[in-house]
């Protein structure tokens, strides 16, 4: 099943690579600077047909849906067709197809693919995490020994003050900060050892579901910024990192 999902995700990535984005293909959704392109819609349509064919009993929850689907008993695909849409619009090439699979509300499989860098992260529960076939194992570094990534919750400007307060407090305790524009990739980068922590004040389940499985299998931790367990049926803050970096962050009480 994993191989079939990976193949579908690669094909979805090709839709991104073959894109020729024009102004008429960009729409604004509710919230500040919240965009969707014709390619977000096309990738989700493609995956909504391909993935159920692989696992017919699974429900499907995608970012570009009507919001009515919930993650309940049994299997559910949790999909962000293009995580990092603003990056995609602006040509930053830091965007990913993100496909998570939950069983009874718990992550059991994740695939995150950046076609621009030809990097595919994947994991199955109990079987390890990988980047292009190479096993991923976290080195448990603390804040002072790594880069911290963050999101700004741009669709919800009411979180701006808290975000920048956290940034000011945490910067002197780190090597540096990065804002890359894709939560799925930021969390996967922790699994790959490229950064030690990621935080964002408000995210939806499709933003992190696939990467959560990858991170857990690599030895990392994901919770809310308050240290609580996440729930795929609830929008919340997200904190992800090495065990030590997460513990250090939570001790700051931010």
Give the proportion of residues in helices: 25-40%
Tally the helices.
7
What name does the CATH topology of the largest domain carry?
A: Fructose-1,6-Bisphosphatase, Chain A, domain 1
Q: Into which percentage range does the β-strand content fall?
A: 25-35%
Low-confidence stretches: none
CATH superfamily of the largest domain: Fructose-1,6-Bisphosphatase, subunit A, domain 1
CATH top level of the largest domain is: Alpha Beta
Average pLDDT, all residues = 94
* Strand line-up of the largest beta sheet: 3-4-5-6-7-8-9
- Assembly state here? single chain
- Run of helices and strands: HEEHEEHEEEEEEHEHEHEEH
Structural class of the helices, strands and pairings? alpha+beta
Largest sheet: 7 strands, mixed
The count of β-strands is 14
Shape: globular
Termini, distance in Å? 41 Å
* Rg over CA atoms: 17 Å
Number of spatially distinct domains: 2
CATH architecture of the largest domain: 2-Layer Sandwich
Quick take:
The chain is of the alpha+beta class. The protein has 7 helices and 14 strands. The protein has a 7-stranded mixed beta sheet, sandwiched between helices. The chain has a 5-stranded mixed beta sheet with strand order 11-10-12-14-13, sandwiched between helices.
């Amino acid at each position: 099943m994993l191989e079939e999902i990976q193949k579908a995700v690669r094909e979805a990535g090709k839709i991104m690579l073959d894109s020729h984005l024009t102004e008429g293909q960009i729409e604004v959704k509710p919230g500040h600077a919240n965009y969707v392109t014709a390619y977000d819609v096309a990738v989700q349509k493609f995956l909504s047909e391909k993935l159920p064919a692989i696992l017919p009993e699974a429900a499907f929850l995608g970012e570009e849906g009507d919001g009515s689907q919930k993650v309940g008993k049994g299997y559910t695909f949790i999909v962000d067709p293009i995580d990092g849409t603003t990056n995609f619009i602006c040509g930053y090439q830091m965007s990913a197809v993100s496909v998570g699979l939950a069983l009874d509300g718990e992550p059991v499989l994740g695939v995150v693919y950046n076609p621009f860098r030809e990097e595919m992260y994947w994991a199955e529960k109990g079987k390890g995490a990988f980047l292009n076939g190479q096993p991923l194992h976290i080195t448990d570094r603390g804040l002072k020994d790594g880069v911290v990534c963050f999101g700004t919750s741009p669709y919800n400007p009411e979180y701006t003050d808290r975000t920048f307060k956290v940034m000011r407090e945490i910067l002197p305790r780190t090597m540096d900060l990065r804002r890359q524009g894709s939560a799925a990739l930021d969390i996967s980068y922790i699994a790959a050892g490229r950064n030690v922590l990621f935080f964002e004040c408000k995210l939806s389940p499709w933003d992190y579901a696939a990467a959560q499985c990858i991170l857990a299998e690599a030895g990392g931790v994901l919770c809310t910024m308050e240290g609580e367990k996440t729930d795929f049926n609830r929008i919340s803050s997200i904190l992800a990192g090495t065990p030590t970096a997460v513990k250090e962050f939570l001790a700051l009480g931010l």
